[in-house]
Design a protein that fits this description.
Blueprint (H helix, E strand, L loop, with lengths): L1 H21 L27 H11 L1 H21 L5 E8 L8 E10 L6 E10 L16 E9 L8 H68 L4 H33 L29 H4 L4 H4 L4 H23 L3 E11 L13 E10 L5 H68 L5 H35 L10
Antiparallel strand pairs: 1-2, 2-3, 3-4, 4-5, 5-6
Helix pairs in contact: 2-4, 3-4, 4-5, 4-8, 4-10, 8-9, 9-10
């Protein structure tokens, strides 16, 4: 009969073990893949537009995907921190297989940590059988067992904050920071993608200028060869033009090299649906004359810079960093507090009185207090001083970054205004240079001009066109920088 009772005692512990084994934490499944599909650039025909580049980089660039994974990791940390307040189940079985005493018991207990006052509530059920030695008589229960409920409270240290509650709040703030980091990475990637695109377009325009310059020299070489053969012109003119040909071919090769570098740089951001880099070809160059002009700085500057930068991810991140630092200071101040914990328990046995006697057939209410404090508390004071120093450091860094962003935005506006004015001047210079070329060619055909001057005028006109292209590029780059600095998500392809 004794062993039959002990088989029954196994049931609570066995059921508890099966419950714990069968309970699994829910999987953290976060979908970070955007709904839109990236442009399959490898199959594209026609001009490549900036919106297509931005769409490609936003959906496929590895840095952005890495940032999403870091955000998923911080969300996992947040879930793990929440686990500090998971319901805990515990089973225990104790039995004497041989010996003078036959006592054994089975126990199942559940504990639930609570956030207010660092509290913890618990409930347990215990049932015993057989006899125990005097020094173990607290193991006795009545025949139907004992039910116990209770709670623990922190009255000083760990009352308002402890490492568990700090970790929950800290991981929540860290997850929010990770979201801002995703936005910052996306802004930077789209900014660099736009800059790479406009450099690629400008490099393609420069090739066109040098090709036209070379074609003129090659066509002139044919005419000069015929005139020298017929004796109408001295051979030195042919030699001089051959020299011009070599110089212009050199300029064209340099422009082709620059275009190849710009294409490779753009290919770093331009990717197909499989994420592989796609190097754009010259056939994909757009018609720059048909593209939207650069925004005027006075339009962009209509909103005060102080309002523009308030939503910058860096500043929002610093606000969260300050909150985390203040929480860390509060945690270290908590460590300086003495520990004063209170407990209360209520227990009751049920059923017939067991071998322990009538002393176990009662409702027991027990309260307790525990107190402890390190007398010197040097460790706690050192950690607090470090947390306070880190808080001050974060405040100073926030001020510096805010001032830096304000300065950068003002400089971008200044560069944009200068770039637009320089572009207007460059266009005017191109028109004048072309007029001078036409006039010098006319004089040369009429025999009043010199071949040297014709070449010089043509190269001056080409340099003016290159200057206009680069002035246009400077304006495009400044506009892209301003859109990134002011978080113009639509212009960056993020809306």
């Amino acid at each position: 009969m004794k062993h039959a009772r002990k088989s029954v005692l196994l049931l609570p512990g066995l059921a508890l073990a099966l419950l714990c084994a069968g309970t699994a934490a829910p999987a953290l499944a976060q979908d970070i893949v955007p709904n839109a599909e990236p442009l399959d650039v490898a199959l594209k025909s026609g001009p490549l537009l900036p919106d297509e580049v931005l769409r490609s980089s936003a959906l496929t660039f590895p840095s952005i995907l890495e940032a999403f994974e870091r955000e998923a990791a911080t969300r996992a940390d947040q879930l793990a921190a929440d686990g500090a307040f998971d319901l805990m189940l515990k089973g225990e079985y104790y039995d004497r297989m041989t010996g003078f005493y036959s006592g054994g018991f089975a126990k199942a207990e559940a504990r639930q940590p609570l956030r207010p006052y660092g509290a913890e509530v618990f409930g347990s059920y215990r049932v015993s059988d057989g006899t125990f030695p005097t020094y173990e008589n607290y193991n006795y229960t009545n025949n139907l067992g004992e039910v116990k409920v209770g709670a623990l409270f922190s009255l000083l240290r760990n009352r308002d904050i402890d490492s568990r509650r700090f970790a929950i709040e800290d991981t929540r703030l860290a997850a929010t920071q990770a979201q801002l980091d995703v936005m910052l990475v996306r802004l930077n990637v789209q900014h660099e993608a736009l800059r790479a695109y406009w450099r690629w377009v400008a490099a393609g325009e420069e090739i066109r200028v040098f090709e036209e310059l070379l074609e003129i020299a090659e066509a002139r070489q044919i005419g000069l060869t015929r005139e020298v053969t017929e004796g109408a012109r001295a051979r030195i003119a042919l030699t001089e033009n051959e020299q011009n040909l070599l110089r212009r071919r050199t300029l064209l090769e340099q422009a082709r090299r620059d275009f190849l570098v710009a294409s490779n740089s753009l290919g770093f951001y331009l990717r197909g649906s499989d994420g592989q880099m796609v190097v754009p070809t010259r056939e994909m160059l757009p018609d720059l004359a048909r593209m939207k002009s650069v925004a005027r700085p006075e339009v962009l500057a209509a909103t005060p810079v102080s309002e523009v930068i308030q939503s910058r991810p860096e500043l929002q991140t610093f606000r969260l960093a300050l909150e985390r630092a203040n929480n860390r200071v509060a945690l270290r101040q908590n460590d300086l507090q003495p520990s004063l914990n209170a407990s209360v328990e209520l227990s009751r046995d049920f059923g017939q009185i067991g071998p322990g006697g009538p002393g176990f057939d009662s409702t027991d209410t027990v309260v307790g207090l525990t107190f402890s404090v390190p007398l010197q508390r040097r460790e706690a004071r050192g950690r607090l001083q470090r947390a306070e120093a880190e808080l001050r450091e974060t405040e100073l860094r926030q001020r510096r970054i805010a001032d830096q962003i304000t300065t950068d935005v003002n400089n971008i506006l200044a560069n944009l205004g200068a770039a637009i004015k320089l572009a207007d001047l460059a266009d005017a210079e191109v028109k004048q240079a072309n007029q001078m070329v036409q006039a010098e060619r006319t004089r040369f055909r009429l025999g009043a001009g010199e071949f040297f001057l014709v070449n010089a005028r043509e190269e001056t006109a080409a340099n003016a066109q290159i200057g206009a292209i680069r002035a246009e590029l400077a304006g495009r780059l400044a506009e892209a920088s301003y859109n990134a600095a002011t978080m113009n998500l639509q212009a960056l392809g993020l809306e």
